[in-house]
Design goal:
This protein has 196 residues and is mainly α. It has one domain (2-184). 63% of the residues lie in helices and 6% in strands. The chain has 7 helices and 2 strands, in the order H-E-H-H-H-H-E-H-H. The chain is globular, with a radius of gyration of 17 Å.
C-alpha cells in the first residue's frame, strides 16, 4: 500500500524534478491552506471506483477469457473515456492508452487491486501537491504554489504534469518492466478461445 502510493508520487516527482532542472518549474510558496482534505477524499474515492471497475472487473474477467495481450488492449481502450476531460488534447489520447496499459500490467502482475489503486492515489495526490492541474482540472487546490513555463509537450500545459512527455515515458517504462517480469514469471495468460 505505502509502496504503491510512494511509487505513484515518486513518478510524478521525477518529472517535476526534470522540469525544475530545465528551468520550467518554479516553487513559489508552500501552504496547506490551499489544499482541502475533501478533495483528497474525492481523489481517493474516484481512484478506488475506477480501479475496482477497470482492473478488478474488466481486466480480471477478460484476462481469464481472452488472455493477457487482448485484455491489455481492452484495458487501454477503456481509458479513452478520459478524452472528454477538460483541456484534453491529441497527446492526451496516447497518455490514456499508456495509463491503461501500465495500470493493467500492475494488476496482472500482482493479481491484486492494491498496487494499481495506491499508485493511482499517489499519482493523483502528487499533481495538486506540486501545484499542477490534475487531468485538466485546475480547482483541486495545491500545497506547493508554483509556476510552470515552457513547451506544453514538456510541462503538460493545461492538462497538468501527467500530460508531460516525461511523465508518459516513465509510465510506459513502468508498464514495460511489469510486462517483462510477468512474461519471465509465466504470468502472461493465453486466450482460452484458441485452445482446443
Amino acid at each position: 500500500m505505502f509502496g504503491g502510493f510512494f511509487f505513484g508520487f515518486f513518478t510524478i516527482s521525477l518529472s517535476i524534478f526534470i522540469l525544475y532542472l530545465l528551468g520550467y518549474y518554479q516553487a513559489i510558496s508552500i501552504s496547506t491552506s490551499h489544499y482541502s482534505i475533501k478533495f483528497f477524499t474525492v481523489l481517493m474515492f474516484a481512484a478506488l471506483v475506477k480501479d475496482l471497475f477497470h482492473r478488478g472487473l474488466i481486466v480480471r474477467v477478460c484476462e481469464n477469457w481472452l488472455g493477457t495481450n487482448v485484455t491489455l488492449v481492452i484495458g487501454m481502450l477503456v481509458e479513452l473515456q478520459h478524452i472528454y476531460n477538460p483541456n484534453s488534447n491529441l497527446f492526451s489520447l496516447f497518455y490514456y492508452l499508456i495509463w491503461g496499459f501500465t495500470m493493467g500490467m500492475m494488476f496482472i502482475y500482482t493479481k491484486r487491486i492494491w498496487l494499481p489503486f495506491f499508485f493511482h492515489l499517489g499519482w493523483n495526490f502528487s499533481q495538486p501537491f506540486y501545484g499542477s492541474n490534475l487531468t485538466g482540472l485546475n480547482d483541486m487546490g495545491s500545497i506547493i504554489q508554483s509556476k510552470f513555463n515552457g513547451p506544453e509537450l514538456l510541462t503538460g500545459g493545461a492538462v497538468g504534469i501527467e500530460g508531460s512527455i516525461f511523465t508518459a515515458s516513465f509510465l510506459l517504462l513502468i508498464g514495460i518492466i511489469f510486462y517483462y517480469r510477468a512474461k519471465r514469471e509465466g504470468k502472461i495468460v493465453k486466450s482460452k478461445l484458441f485452445k482446443r
